[in-house]
Amino acid sequence: MNEEIPEPTDPTDLPDLTHPADLGLGPAQRLLTEADLARWASFIHQGGSSRSTLWLLLLDRDGRSLPELIAIDDVEPGPHPVFVANLLQLVEVKLATIAPGGSMVAMLERPGTPHRTPADREWNEAVRGEARTCGIPVQALFVACAGRILPMTLDDAA
């Protein structure tokens, strides 16, 4: 199931990736646009990956990043419903405690082909569905693979 893949972000179009504050990625930096969120994803995924990691960035109600970045290594190729439910319930509690009205950004970083896969769609559907159940707005969900950042939309979850 090959899909048209957008060209990878040209690194010359981005500020120096060695200074995350220049990207607006430090704590309390606002990530308000799709471009801001894509820069975050590009900063986290700086090339290939040999294992699957689920990344979660929490934002306050004004779109400012919270200082913690959640990384869960070695996730399964497809989501396990209990794992996703437990994880998002923890995110719900964290946001309610320190950033009421906040939201999240998620990225599944994995090895393999730079195409959206059925497992990617399952992750998108599981994370978005459980986030909706918990009342957590999802600002963006990305799949990072083979040096590419693929945005996953609501349509991809259907």
State the main characteristics.
158 residues; globular; disordered N terminus; 4 helices; single chain; five-stranded mixed beta sheet; alpha+beta
Shape: globular
DSSP helix count?
4
Main sheet strand line-up: 2-1-3-4-5
Structural class: alpha+beta
Arithmetic mean pLDDT: 82
Gyration radius (Cα, Å) is: 15 Å
What is the helix fraction of residues, given as a range?
Answer: 25-40%
| Sheet having the most strands | 5 strands, mixed
Q: What kind of assembly state do the chains in view correspond to?
A: single chain
Beta-strand portion reads: 15-25%
Low-confidence stretches: 1-24
Name the helix and strand elements from N-terminus to C-terminus, one letter apiece: HEEHEHEEH
Number of strands: 5
The rounded distance between the terminal residues' Cα atoms is: 16 Å
